[in-house]
Amino acid sequence: MNGRTGRVVRAVRTARGAASVALAVALAVALLGTAACTSEAPATTAGASGGSGSSGSSGGGSSKPQEYKEGRLRVLASSELADMEPVLKAAKAATGVSVDFTWSGTLDAADQVASGKADGRYDAIWLSSNDYLRLRPEAAAKLGTETPVMSSPVAVGVKPEALARLGWKPAEVTWAAVEEAVAAGRLTYGMTDPVRSNSGFSALVSVASGLSGAQAALTDADVDKARPRLKGFFDGQRLTSGSSGWLATAYRKRDDVDALVNYESVLLSMNDRAKSPLTVIRPKDGVVTAHYPLTLLASAPAGARDSGRLLTDWLRGDAAQKSITDGTKRRPVAAGVAPAAGLDGEKRRELPFPGSRSVADGLLASYENELRRPSRTVYVLDTSGSMADEDRIGRLRAALTDLTGTGSSGPGERFRDREEVTLLPFGDRVKKVLTHVVEPGNPGPALDAIRGDVKGLRPEGGTAVYGSLKAAYEHLGRGESDAFTSIVLMTDGQSGDKAKDFDAFYAALPEARRHTPVFAVLFGDSDREELTHITELTGGRLFDATEGNGSLDGAFEEIRGYQ
Q1: What is the pTM of this model?
Q2: What would the pLDDT profile of 79-138 be if each residue is shown by its tens digit?
Q3: What is the rounded distance in angstroms from the CA atom of residue 379 to the CA atom of residue 439?
Q4: Using CB atoms within 10 A of its CB, is residue 29 exposed (0-12), middle (13-18) or buried (19+)?
Q5: Who's near 162: CB < 8 A, 6+ residues apart?
Q6: Which of 7, 59, 147, 441 is exposed most, by the fewest CB atoms within 10 A?
Q7: CA 421 remoteness from chain centre
């Protein structure tokens, strides 16, 4: 530890012991100055700024993290930690340590750490949980000091009218009661994708434990026992998402969703801005809790480890803990700090995590290919003449081919069983409409056919974005389907047709069809303003794969969590 760091460490410890008034004031000022900050993820997945020395980018892209600099921690983090900006601003003022965030899904981050891809790129990880990471033996040597900073259990937020209709007493609700209401068609809900978001995975483990009656860590037998009821539970899911923040945003635009399954902190933060607050229920038979451990990596330079310990020591102080719980609605880890208003003090059983990776991955695979509602996805693909530039068409082919996986692909690494995949390449007009369904137990023929179609994509013609989007919505409107529907738009240029024609077309669609979001990918010379308009109109999200911000394959992979 160098002299400067040592002096700051001693100063912070003194401040902690004295419960420094000046420190509390600095935190309050920082919180007031950013009152609009919420638990939502940044609006775009790459190049988003966290401000005050904190920056954010997508973990799925190819953008390079900054080189290590003294006093700056490079942190691979869960996206919901964007709401920690005011606390980290105060931390920088008190300690001199700032944080450069790269946002990632918890399970994707675990893959980066276990595979060694995080070595040298990041100094620490700050995920909602390290439970899944600990199931991977190859990751153990990669981790250094692990320190919980705050906590939040999985909970169910229910609309007042749905609560009244069901006649529930919040303190008495169990996961079995939730499943019974869903299976009877009396409750619909939204939840994040368990393969990419820890809130979704924690919810999946909680429901499986509750429905199987497991008294210890989930086993394969427990999952088999719960499977029939799990299928009924997921029939009621109406919203899916790759992040907790986008799920909250999408929920506010829907009137056909009764509830959300998410972290308690996300639900309570939503209530701060809601006209009709959700009733937050922590099922009495138990929950899985996120403890947000700030974890230093073994590969981090000595200076980064010193900075990490300094920051962690400060974050666990009483003043910081008070600001964390008041500002983010997470529970403090400091025994002397009272939880923020609205945080129920009644204890709930902590449900154990699966005891082995095989059980965890088996549960995820069951969710992907059997339990959840199937997907219908239309890929609206710009194959205009400009896609020949800089081998853009080659990158598009490679990104789509990656989604077909291999024979040994794990959960989330290929198109799902039962998924209907449509490729809609366009130039001046729609060139083809190529549809394949991935058959359960025999995915090979459909995946091979998709690879063949992708290989045949050729760059020629103009850029009819809006007309092609209309064709995608018309395709999805043919026939009835109880599937998650979405459109992925990839273009490298500006549209040659008119936005107002598409806007009028979209406004005239039946309400149910307007629930299909467009996930647009910035690529090449595409128009950010144009694509932002499309995603905001349809309730989708913009992903940045332009040079320096991300990669096309990273964007396509990340979108999978929203389909």
Answers
A1: 0.84
A2: 889 999 999 999 999 999 999 999 888 778 888 999 999 999 999 999 999 988 888 888
A3: 19
A4: middle
A5: 187, 258, 259
A6: 441
A7: 22
Residue pair 230/312 in contact (Cβ under 8 Å)? The answer is: no
- Dig out the tokens for 537 from the structure: 């109109």
Q: In the Cβ-directed half-sphere of 150, how many Cα atoms lie within 13 Å?
A: 34
Cα(562)–Cα(79) distance, integer angstroms: 15
Tell me the per-residue pLDDT of 403-412, one tens digit each, with 9 for 90 and over.
Answer: 999 867 777 8
* Residue carrying the six token digits 């933060």: 269
Q: What is the pLDDT of residues 539-558, one digit of tens each?
A: 999 999 987 677 899 899 88
Q: Which two tokens stand for residue 105?
A: 């899904």
Cα-Cα-Cα-Cα dihedral of 506, 508, 514, 516, to 10°?
A: -50
Residue 4: pLDDT above 80? no
- Spatial separation of the C-alpha atoms in residues 93 and 553, rounded to whole Å: 38
Detail the DSSP E strand segments found in 386-514: 420-426, 434-437, 484-491
Query: Is there a contact between 79 and 87 (Cβ–Cβ < 8 Å)?
Result: no
Please give the sequence-ordered ranges of beta strands (E in DSSP) within 266-343, or none if there are none: 279-281, 289-290, 293-297, 331-332
Yes or no: say if 139 and 116 are a contact pair by the CB < 8 Å rule: no
Number of H helices, E strands in the chain: 21, 20
Q: What one-character DSSP code corresponds to residue 459?
A: -
Length of the chain: 563
- Which uninterrupted H or E stretch holds 358? helix 357-366
Domains, the chain, in order of start with CATH, read 3-148+293-329 (3.40.190.10), 153-289+350-362 (3.40.190.10), 374-562 (3.40.50.410)
Residue 297 reports pLDDT greater than 80: yes
**Phi/psi of residue 107, each to 5°?**
-70, -35
pLDDT in tens, 370-393: 999 999 999 999 999 999 998 999
Rounded to an integer, the average pLDDT of 437-448 is 95
| Segment (H or E) for 314 | helix 302-315
Give me 373's structure tokens: 């509602």
